[in-house]
Give the backbone structure.
Amino acid sequence: MIKNTPSIAEEDELTDIDQSNYDQLRIWNNVQTQTNLVKNQNEQFPFKTTAIMKTGLISWRFPRLLLDFISVSPHMLVHAEEQLYQGLKNKYFGEYIHIRGDNSIWTIRSLYSPENAIPIVLIHDFGCASGIWIENIDFLSARHPLYMFDILGFGRSSRPIFDQTNSTKAETKFIESIEDWRIAVGLQEKFFLVGHGFGAYLATLYTIRYGSYIKKLILLDPWGFNPKPDECQLHLSTPFWIKCLAYITETWTSFSAFRYLGPLGLPVLKFLAPRWKRLTPVDNSNIKSDTLYEYLYHVNVQPASGDVGFQALASWYGWAKEPIVQVNHSRLENISDEISIVFIYGSRTHIDSSVAQQILHQRGSDNTCIKIIHNAAHFFFMEKPIQFHEVMIDILSDLSDGVHSLASEDNRITTTIRFARSSRPVFSLDSIEAEKQFIDMLEEWRIGIGLNKEFILLGHSFGGYLSTSYTISYPKYVKQLVLIDPWGFEKKPENIWETGRLQRIPKWLRTFSPIMMKLSPLSGLRAVGPLGVPVIKHVRSDLREKFKRLVDDDRILIYLFHCNAQLPTGEKAFRTISDCFAWAKEPIMDRIHLLDEKIPIYFLHGEQSWITMKSSLIIQENRENTFVETIKEAGHHIYADAPEEFEMYLKRILYNN
């Protein structure tokens, strides 16, 4: 243990003694109950470190009666945690690990672990504590020595004072407390470091500073990676009254209201966060859901400390003041390439995963990968524990190339590791970033299948747009570019209602266009559920006719329905990239000059297609090695409308090249 050393970040704030008589709360633990959590019975508390409540407009001098009302006994947190751990199969040991600054870190470790297995360390998210891993610890501890702790200032750990105005000191305080904990707990070998949300941010900062102890960094829905966009990028204009309110409440933290509400905070939490009922551990009984609510409530109504430290690091809660990936550089550059980094996201998370794609492209797929768990949100390890455990098996087993685990086979799990297989990841809401994600995935796919020689790239419609963008970015192996009725080349006209088929739309229907543009193109198809195939048959009866030479039944309709009834992440990305669906926000015409002129381009249009060939002809006039042709009696789907002519065209341009 570390004793008689300077406090973390050399902070020794002086407090008003008279005020501390009201505000300081001492916490101790002498409660013993029957539970799967075995405690160190030789340690006696209280903490010697106290936390000062500074969670209002100013640091008020609360009357004793009011202070008793807004404070909740830490005994209730202890009891809630022990109730949470009941029903687990394995046994765990809980103790306080003493670190610098007279602080203590509440730690839980597995009692029985396989020999010679690499340890796992879990770091929870903001507003949580180590009990949040309740659905996963039995599974993980059966295979690895398991350690989890309450971050300094959260849960049952000490709650020291953080300087809300100094992000550097707060960051140092958090990171050094983790290193002090590692030394004190005796963890001298390399370990897997797993962090969720804010915990992933701290895990990354720790690895940057103390990477020699990290075997693999596993980041679950990590917070704090993306730089904060300005209001123009967010298409927001903050109202003046919001700015005034933010100024008035700038000394508040996320949980100030719960502390002020006292015993009324628990029913308010249940009302405001009903989703936690779905994440109930072990089973869906009301008793278990109440236990989880009580645990999270008592975690967050203790004296303000860690949430003040978080507020020092955060900018409007959604972004970090010092993000991992910044405009001019990435802090990950200080992490050795020998340390693998794994990103895991829920498909419905609010966290933007575009930065993970950027990191994957920079570091390469040999030591970086991204996994998506479908139909899950931020707390996917609680919401979809089985899928999460399968992913962890894949990650922790260090499978060699070509070997697949259950996670690799599970269609509920998307993986972008080594083979960069087709998937439905979360795309950026920025059109340029979303397009870059598509293009980088194509390049990872090429690398993954070992296509290291020249090839002919053919794309249809939106695929033609992506093929052209890919060739501009990665021209090395593209020998020939064939574009079949490509979308996204032409610039959007000033008055879209005077162009093409849009002229036919009645004016009254045009008034609904702003609403329709906010929907994914195929939302209606998913909304009708099992009626989707009959709807397609009625609305697009021509599709069966197009493919009747191959199949004279509904198989093609069923296929197309199930293609488009899945999670619509790519569809949403198309909506992000497009402008009124028919045009691209970043049209190819503005950058076709960047494409290597040595690469020939072949345009093929259907004369009856809704996409005009105007842009193709302009490119042909201004660029050598460019060829434009059309097929009569063919629309947008040329290969289906005129398959024989399409086949002859391909033979002519490909074989005679």
